[in-house]
Amino acid sequence: MTRIDPYGGIRWHWTTPRAQDILRRRALPEIFQLYRELHGLPQQELADLLGYSTSYVSRIETGSRTITDLGALRHIAERLGLPPHCLGITDEADGDHQLVIQLAESVLRLAEIARQVGQATTAVAELWPLVARLEARAADGHADLDTLRLLARARVGLGVALGHVLPEERLATAARWTGKGLNVARRLGDPGLHANALRHHGNELRKAGLHLRALDRLGQARDTARTATERAEAVVLLARAAGAAGNAAVFDFAIEEGRRLLDEAAPTALFSDFTLHEVRLRGLMSTGRVAEAVRQLDHAPVAGLAATSQWQIIAAITAGEVLLKKGDPTGAAQQLGTAVDGATLHHLPHQLQRVVRAGRHLPEVRERAGDALARLRAEIAA
């Protein structure tokens, strides 16, 4: 129904509500008319494309000629770049297409679970072939709306997983993948999918150091959220990005909104009192309020069931940074050492890079983190 060029740009001719209605009704006369309209073709050129006479195409468009032969319908579907099922044909290729849809849902769920339990490398390994297969299907003209939704989710999921396992200098790759997912999601008329893509793309932009773009995407995600949970997840990431950008005004506003939303939104892997506290500590440090961060450190909530391994490692590094500012190198070394163990176990090179920077006055911690980082780099290179 849609086609994807070699650079991943989708042509959206068959995804409009009008086109979807025509395809749903399998109205061949209207399919011909819409195809000609979209491509600016007279009947003669459509006839040439199909290998028919102009009069034959005219009779089809007026409804005076009905086509029921499966071979002819399959030929039309192939020439117009439509999945066979749009013309009522169920064959092996279409059956394979339905199987891909079913398997894609399972892969996406399993990859999300793997990432949240600290196995982002497994998620990447699962999502790479899925994205490749979905994009190949789309390039062959087999991308209906369900496939495009899956493609958007798979691209975003791959970007997020890569954002866990790539070192800092390569995090722009993760942002590009989430951006490619966002490009699809924004056109599909699915607010939840769009909001999810905005949140994740904004977060990967932040990690890649593109702070202004990150704030823009995350602000959009907050403003277009349909539920308290969607807004809370956007707000905590907005606060994180604002802190990284040194924008104290936006940071403070987002933190206050996040605190209010604690009473409205159920805890998730992304938003909870635990994650909000970590974001607040780091943002206070980034915006020059070290004393306040030190005071808040002792009020850290216990990580609940929703807190992922990634967030607990991040929180340990932040606590170590604050303890160093407090003048407690022993406590800082303990927190950063815990983070090194976790980041090594879960293959998180950019968290090890953060420990290396944080532990510049703790030689043993810095050396351990550096050695672990070198091993992970070698694995990535291989």
Characterise the protein shown here.
Helices cover 73% and strands 1% of the residues. The chain is mainly α and 382 residues long. Among the domains are: 3-89, lambda repressor-like DNA-binding domains (434 Repressor (Amino-terminal Domain), Orthogonal Bundle), CATH 1.10.260.40; 91-191. A two-stranded antiparallel sheet has the order 1-2. Strand 1 (3-4) and strand 2 (10-11) form a beta hairpin.
Could you outline the blueprint of secondary structure elements for this entry?
Elements: E1 3-4, E2 10-11, H1 17-24, H2 28-39, H3 43-50, H4 54-62, H5 70-80, H6 92-116, H7 120-139, H8 145-165, H9 171-185, H10 191-207, H11 211-224, H12 228-245, H13 248-261, H14 273-286, H15 290-297, H16 309-326, H17 329-345, H18 349-358, H19 363-381
Antiparallel strand pairs: 1-2
In short:
This protein has 382 residues and is an all-alpha fold.
Distance between the termini: 39 Å
Low-confidence stretches: 1-11
Average of the residue pLDDT scores: 89
How many strands? 2
Global geometry: elongated
- What profile does the largest beta sheet have? 2 strands, antiparallel
Kindly state the percentage of residues in helix.
over 70%
Structural class: mainly alpha
| H/E element order | EEHHHHHHHHHHHHHHHHHHH
* Strand coverage percent: under 5%
Number of helices: 19
**Spatial sequence of strands, sheet with the most strands:** 1-2
Radius of gyration: 26 Å
Can you give keywords for this protein?
434 Repressor (Amino-terminal Domain), two-stranded antiparallel sheet, 19 helices, 382 residues, disordered N terminus, 73% helix, elongated, mainly alpha
